Amino acid sequence: ALVLVYFFAHQFSSINIAKAVALATVAIGFGGSMTYGQTLGLTQDSSLIGNIAALRWGLIGTFIKGSIWIGFFGLFLGLGLGGKKYSLFEILLILFVSIFFIYLGIYILNEPFDPGNKQLPFIYFSDDWYWEPGEKLIPRREQWGGLLFALTFLYFYISFIKKDILARNMTLWGLLAGGFGFTIGQCVQAYHAWNMDDIKNGILSSIYPYINWWNMMEITFGAVFAFIIALGLWYNRHHISSNDDNNSLQLGIKAELGLLVIHIVAL
């Protein structure tokens, strides 16, 4: 985010560069609240190697979660660079309405969740007895549905109420970046799991013990999503605020400290 903001918004003051980067950084944290370890496990767990249906379902879940994750990043990056002004009251209103949609989305898409009675949501991308009926599983609660509802609400608000073109467009680019980035990254790790012996005895044999395949997934994910986000920001560069005085989220120090306290409490 820092590189992108410096490159595309060099006309901004240091404080507004910091605000744009901070917004994007906070947004990245939203994705961390989604459980995805077991989703990736559907594509690479030893008991599921050879199960094409589980691989396909795991990659679908990876695409959805990645899209939501980086969709938030794109939206918040666009907010920081687009120049639309948001008042403190407006920010607080959006915050609390978004929280409502998070709970609504979880209720609609991520319920029921009662592992003790083997009751899981209809659309579920973590450990499931459907894939491993004889295993002792510890399914994780998913909340991607809540984040999807919140992201959808924010998208419609910035698009139709605020008419924030950059934030709207960067949300769409973020959806693409996260979906393809996370999925392609996991394909690297899944390919290793499915072809471990061939890789271990192939041209990578000498360095194989030193390769961390989880890190390979993360690096690939980051590289792909960064490339797509950068491409999207370049394509929408004419929507970036040209006047630093018009940068969004111009709040007083008291308002900023208040939002910081709310953010910490919410975490």
TrEMBL record:
<feature type="transmembrane region" description="Helical">
    <location>
        <begin position="172"/>
        <end position="194"/>
    </location>
</feature>
<feature type="transmembrane region" description="Helical">
    <location>
        <begin position="57"/>
        <end position="81"/>
    </location>
</feature>
<feature type="transmembrane region" description="Helical">
    <location>
        <begin position="143"/>
        <end position="160"/>
    </location>
</feature>
<feature type="transmembrane region" description="Helical">
    <location>
        <begin position="88"/>
        <end position="109"/>
    </location>
</feature>
<keyword id="KW-0472">Membrane</keyword>
<protein>
    <submittedName>
        <fullName>Uncharacterized protein</fullName>
    </submittedName>
</protein>
<feature type="transmembrane region" description="Helical">
    <location>
        <begin position="20"/>
        <end position="37"/>
    </location>
</feature>
<feature type="transmembrane region" description="Helical">
    <location>
        <begin position="214"/>
        <end position="235"/>
    </location>
</feature>
<keyword id="KW-0812">Transmembrane</keyword>
<keyword id="KW-1133">Transmembrane helix</keyword>
